[in-house]
Amino acid sequence: MRGNPIIKNPLTLTCIECGKKSEFRSIQHKCPECGGFLWFECKLEKFKDKFSKIKINNNFWDYNFTFPSIKKDFIISLGEGGTPCRASKSFSEKLNIKNLFFKDETKNPTNSFKDRAAALLVSHARSWDFNKIVCASNGNQGASIAAYSSLERIECLNIIPNEIDLGKKAQIIAYDSDLKTIGNTVDDAIDYVIDNNELNDYYQCTPELNPLTLEAQKTIAYEIINQIELPNWIIIPMGSGELLVSLWKGFNELKEIEIIKDIPKLIGVQSQSSSPIINDFFNNHKHKKESPKNIKSMALGILVQKPLYKNLAIKCIKDSKGTVIAIPENFIFPSIEQLIRDEGIFAEPSSALTLAAIQLLEQKQTFESKDSVVCLITGSGLKAPYILEAISSQTKTTGKGSIIITKLKILSQISLSSIKGITGTDIKETMGTISLAAIYQHLKELEIKGLISRKKEGKNVLYFITNSGKRVLDALDVLITLL
Ligand SMILES: [Zn+2]
């Protein structure tokens, strides 16, 4: 086995904190002088001209001129990027937001946005003549890296935590990667990669530890600007926070060369079960009561306890005049179903958080009706077996189980509209094939049990969740975390 290859074309990176530029012959993410994050600065002089020549929906490598130089011969591609930014079919009207879009990254080759980073990182590894690659991740990045390295027969080692979505693990194995399971969350897997000297001759593909990840992911911002008018808001799921930082960087580069006048306001979303970035955003240290080892969430793709990009992500959100929102666990599954049935998008739980976020923020009157909002759908729900099991179990039988599921769905819908209230007809729209009469029967029974209340407003009867109803949903939250 060979050792470190001799690097002829070093990577020039700049420290975000002290501004020092240095040349590197191995992948580094921290400034050797001050410990600040390193990132790549692309040459902006000829950028404007080249950017304006790119046609809508062209692919990821059209933006090669913004990456560190990678010659054509080294490029590894499976057709990543160029994903659709689709106008909402249904929620735009329901939420009274004129321009609502879904940037659908499930359309990438391994069904997540991580294919962008995998394409660039594995191509870069190849241009540096590495024949071994290591990646610690929650699964999506691991699956992508495994796919791209298997194309070139590059040896791939994936480090994953115990709890990852089975579909992602299966992809890693299917693409013939070596696999090591370390710890309960991705934090343990990342620490292992940082501390293990035996991995020094591997090319580093852990997204948080390779600054080129930001370069690959910022192309999502470029594509959005090439696909639609400059949006007012972008809603982004946050794990380590590096995806949000990537988009901020992409939009800022476009602002610097005057392709856009201002950057969109960035909204960072996490699950309430694990929201370390949001807690710090509000300086809310009281919420750190959970024992780190016991945190459970459906949104496994963004389950990170010590997000490496936390401080930078908070800076980016504040700089963009954006905000953050933590989503209760019991909102996730109804949002997944709504995305499937109303928008045709089969998203993973962390992506569905963006739809729940838009509904909750709309109730707080965060948006104006003329605003344009983009929800970033990062990965596919087909990778998460409990989503598949839950949906498969919803056969159209009328056993007690399905009656309870229907009642809980109705209760969740009412909870989502807890400030403004919701009509029976609006509930029906989110419930698929069930009749309006059946909905009203369920509403009547929920009201008798004291879980909901109603109020007449003009011709409409609006339903609201009561404190007892909230307690039932909270209890369900606890049950979900036991699964
Ligand atoms: Zn520095």
What percentage of amino acids are in beta strands? 5-15%
- Largest sheet data: 6 strands, mixed
Number of individual domains: 2
What's the shape? globular
Query: What does the average pLDDT come to?
Result: 89
Whole-Å distance between the termini? 44 Å
Q: What does this molecule look like?
A:
The chain is of the alpha/beta class. It folds into 2 domains: 56-392, Rossmann fold; 396-482, Winged helix-like DNA-binding domain superfamily/Winged helix DNA-binding domain (Arc Repressor Mutant, subunit A). The chain contains 18 helices and 15 strands. The chain has helices at 47-52, 91-94, 114-127, 140-151, 166-174, 186-195, 212-217, 219-227, 242-256, 276-281, 310-319, 332-343, 349-363, 385-392, 400-416, 424-429, 436-448, 467-482, and strands at 11-15, 21-24, 38-39, 85-87, 99-104, 132-136, 155-160, 178-181, 203-204, 233-237, 265-271, 323-327, 372-377, 452-457, 460-465. The protein has a 6-stranded mixed sheet with strand order 4-5-13-10-11-12, with helices on both faces. Strands 8-7-6-9 form a 4-stranded parallel sheet. Helix 4 links the parallel strand 6 (132-136) and strand 7 (155-160). The model has no long low-confidence stretch (mean pLDDT 89).
